[in-house]
Amino acid sequence: MTDPPPIPEQAITEGAGEAGALVGAEERLALREAQPRRPRSYLARVTVRTMGRWGAAMGGLWLGFIALLAIFAPLIASSFPLVMKSADGTVSSPWIAFLKPMDVALPLLAAMALLLLFGFRGWATARKWLVFLVVGGSVVGASYLVVSPPALATYDTYRGGLKSGEIEWAVHTPIRFSPSDRLRDQPKAEPVAPSGTHWLGTTRNNADLASRMIHACRIALAVGFIATGIAVVIGVAVGGLMGYFSRTVDLLGMRLVEIFEAIPQLYLLLTFVAFFPRNQYTLYFIMVIIGLVSWTGYARFTRAEFLKLREQDFVVATKALGLPLRSTLFKHMLPNGVAPVLVTASFGIASAILAEAFLSFIGLGLADEPSWGQLLSQAVGGGGTFVWWIAIFPGLAIFLTVFAYNLIGESLRDAIDPHTQKASQA
Amino acid sequence: MLTYIIRRLLLMVPTMLGITAVVFFVMAFSPGGVAGNIISAEGDMDSGQAAVLRAYYDARYGLDQPKVVQYGRWLNQISPIGWGSALNDQGLPETTGFGFKWPDLGESFSKGRPVLDLYAEALPVTLLLNGITVPIVWVVAIFSGVYAARFRGKWFDVTSGTALLALWSIPVIWAGVLLIGFLANEQWLRWFPTGGLSSTGATEMAFLPGFSLAGVWERGWLLDRLWHLVLPVICLVYGSFAVLSKLMRASVLETISAEYVRTARAKGLPGGRVLWGHAFRNALLPLITVAAGIIPSLLGGSLIVEKIFSIDGMGKLTLDAIFARDRDLVLAGALISGIITLVCILIADLCYALADPRVSYD
Prior knowledge:
Chain A is mostly helical. Chain A is 65% helix and 3% strand. In chain A, helix 4 crosses helix 19 and helix 10 (209-245) packs parallel to helix 13. The longest helix of chain A is centred in the middle third of the chain and has 37 residues, at 209-245. At the A-B interface, helix 11, helix 12, helix 17, helix 18 and helix 19 of A face helix 1, helix 6, helix 7, helix 12 and helix 13 of B.
């Protein structure tokens, strides 16, 4: 082994256990941290250290790509011309007229998130979250009030118009098919293989596969985040209370955790979803249920952390200073005990996506909205016919997304685990 | 130790109550409840028919009573002490005296057979699937874990870590569809059957492969069964390596840096003996806890696999029951898989104490 590189003084005081792991990217990080600047928060340091690993970086790239597709889905795949000129000389944009509320709200939300993340440096994190929730909520609400696309969309009008000359010219999105465009003007008995017109082929009911997959990115991302978000909130709350109060609360709480752990998650999920009627809210229902059945892991980890923390000096000090319980729990203990929760959350997002894919696969998901699992279920059809492109592409999308989250979770675990750092020192 | 076991067994009772209560009330509070299927069918019936069906459901499940009473009725039915019941001449249950009785899991509404019989048929199938899966998972995971620790930071460690994580991320539904589509389909390769556990007519086959009296090669029952098991077992196996292998690697790494391993190396033992004779055996300890703990998650996994390959095991029975709103079958499924899970956790804890004299529960 080569001699360890000289370590800046400040980096050593940052954390003695980390010193050995400072090579390559982390050495640069340490140098950057040595600059006389506002010290990074714990979370920021963990993020930088995690993303410095190539696995997490690749995973992050893929997720960024998926997120871009989700945000700009209508700009990439739509049957409606962006701009067109009719034979009578009027120039119009059917694309704008047919935008759905979410199509408008998502880019606005994303822009706001980026602005809050990288701008407003002086603001506290809690303030940023508050602004994001309030303004984001009103943006979504407003877009549902303001944007109202025509209820009935006839996709073939524009293709037919171009062919018959009623439309002089039209500018299209890269993929010229909407996800629910069943191409009724060109009915086919069999799905079409990937080609220049249909980049990834068509599905069994004649829709464009690429378009459906791009619009399905939204569901995949939303399921992961919302379901895991619910699970984390419940888990941290229950686990935190168990760890802090221990005794009776702990005993009862652990029974609750055991009950939910002993029911196979899939079993409960299936019972919930199969027994309640399916409508346009089913997706949100699925997210809530996944959240409700998968919080036990977070509760266990938070409980263990809080049991450790409650004896420590700084927690005792908050009690001695007479701080309210709320402050002790959320401002002082939680930030110090949240690290293992992040790792589990990253794996949890992956398994939430898998759960949604399975539900859609067996036909318990959404009926018409595109979802990767539902697309995958069309690969093997009645009579044993097998369509390879419907099997490969949606499955690959699920796999890559799940793999990305797992890679990030793995790197995150290594980044916050003092043992791995000790091991690389030994 | 005995007190500990008894205490744990007693603690299982409230847990099982909780599990069945959650499942029961989810079903009871859903629109239509367990009788939901007749609501949709009611349009096709005349009012007399529908009323008869309703009366049947009410008598059978006590749907006209409060939901808590309905749950109490079910608990009474499965408990060994309580009010007995017998079928009257109209085929409806009637309460008899209080006392000891055989616990009764009820009768399946959709299949018209006792629930116990159905699960007694389905459980061995699932156990067979998992019985083949578990040893394969263990052997591969243990060896890859040990070698990853042995060559820590080298290419084997890095590639096996990433590859197993990738395998873990492959959705079972995707693997199943690909395997069926490419290896069991007339359009591509027709190497394996698409589903089930035996070919038609497997019952008439000889057990072992051989030549029939006419001199024709026959594969026999055993080979036929194995042939059907290949794809489902692949689907069950590949995803389970990552967690165990990672655990094994961490455990070996910990023991390798222990004093006694250094001593063994210092007194000049060959590397292989140090690794396998000294470090490996102690590194197995933390794996014992997960040995039994892995079984519940395998049960969940085999639900998906049984669905994809249409194998009539526990998972498929449960799925069918849920879709048919077959209350007794669903509740019995929750009860059985809950008990299996809890017993596995208990066994894991006990094994840990048996293997490590430092651990004591008294």
